[in-house]
Amino acid sequence: MAGTPWSDRMGLSVPIVNAPMGGVAGGRLAAAVSAAGGLGMIGMGSSGSVSALEHELTQLDPKPTMFGIGTVAWVVEREPALLDTALAARPALVSVGFTEDWSWVDRVHAAGVSAVTQVYDADHARRAAAAGVDVLVARGSEGGGHGDPRLGTLAVLDAVLEAVTVPVLAAGGIATARGLAAVLAAGASGAWLGTCLSVCPEALTPEPAREALLRARATDTVVTRVFDLGQRLPWPDRYPARVLSNETTLRWAGREEQLSRDDKARDEVAAAVATDDPRLAPVDAGAGVGALTRARPAGAVVAELFREAESLLRQRQPTGSDATRSSPSPGL
Ligand SMILES: Cc1cc2nc3c(=O)[nH]c(=O)nc-3n(C[C@H](O)[C@H](O)[C@H](O)COP(=O)(O)O)c2cc1C
Hints:
- The chain has helices at residues 5-10, 27-35, 50-58, 73-78, 81-88, 103-110, 122-130, 153-163, 177-186, 207-215, 226-231, 247-252, 256-260, 263-274, 298-315, 320-326; strands at 16-18, 40-44, 67-72, 93-97, 114-119, 135-139, 145-146, 168-171, 190-193, 221-224, 241-244.
- α3 links the parallel β2 (40-44) and β3.
- By secondary structure, the protein is of the alpha/beta class.
- Mean pLDDT is 95; it is low at 323-332.
- It has an eight-stranded parallel sheet. A three-stranded antiparallel sheet has the order 7-11-10, with no helix packed on it.
- It has two domains: 9-198 and 294-314, TIM Barrel, CATH 3.20.20; 207-274, no CATH class.
- Flavin mononucleotide (FMN) binds at residues 19-22, 24, 43, 45, 70, 72, 97, 118, 139, 142-145, 147, 171-174, 193-195, 198, 284-286, 288.
């Protein structure tokens, strides 16, 4: 199997895009993913800024022929020049997420750049495609970081593929060759991978978070708004974050409304975040986190995932007597 029609058109040898993870996906990770034949993206999340982006652009080494930049609508509202800086860097893709104000799409197109956004159901996908977004990311609730948690990855991928004709990437909990093979077999144009690249040496992940990610089991994540409430970040309510479960998430589980009305408690959560200690502070992680057992270079992760996914997909292709056996039979 070569890539997908989309990845071939993009000139990628691997249909993998690294998710633009704020505080994790900087220039080094993006460069490594692009060097491995995928599409590397720099992420500007809650603490994104023009100066942070300018710094990460200097870390694109080796300078890829193609890379992307992803950010968050409310972060661009806070500093509108962020989008100008992103476009001036001449990326192949710009992703803006967590908004239904599509005015950014024309600005991105005017710079000759493709527009990408994450979508969470069929209607959302139709609205994004109608607004001119070129590539959609069908992101399921298994995903790490912020997102709408209502539908799982296969359910949202299926619904979005049915709803639109633009290329659709799959995201959420994909961390193994089996997961990658599954979404490619379902018709995804590629996979948008976050958590499984977050412990690579090229990622910006601080060491204590990296260790916590490597220790975590698949069942150790939780979807919460606790940290956003504590830090008073303007994340829309419908986009909570999947993070590693820890003392702070356990303490406030099921009591987020109460926390939102309690200023003192919010200050305490903000202080917990400021410790940067994964026992108290947030570590974004998807449900694929259990597959992370060691920190390997991004190029090795990307190459192995695709090689093994190809092998799995090849095994499923009927050959010889299997082909005869599995051909449609009028009696069945
Ligand atoms: C550490 C981390 C940070 C993230 N930051 C952002 C971000 O700044 N902007 C964004 O659009 N998505 C962000 N995401 C979500 C990803 O775009 C994507 O939906 C998710 O990583 C896919 O699921 P996975 O982590 O299970 O692969 C982040 C995810 C993680 C794990």
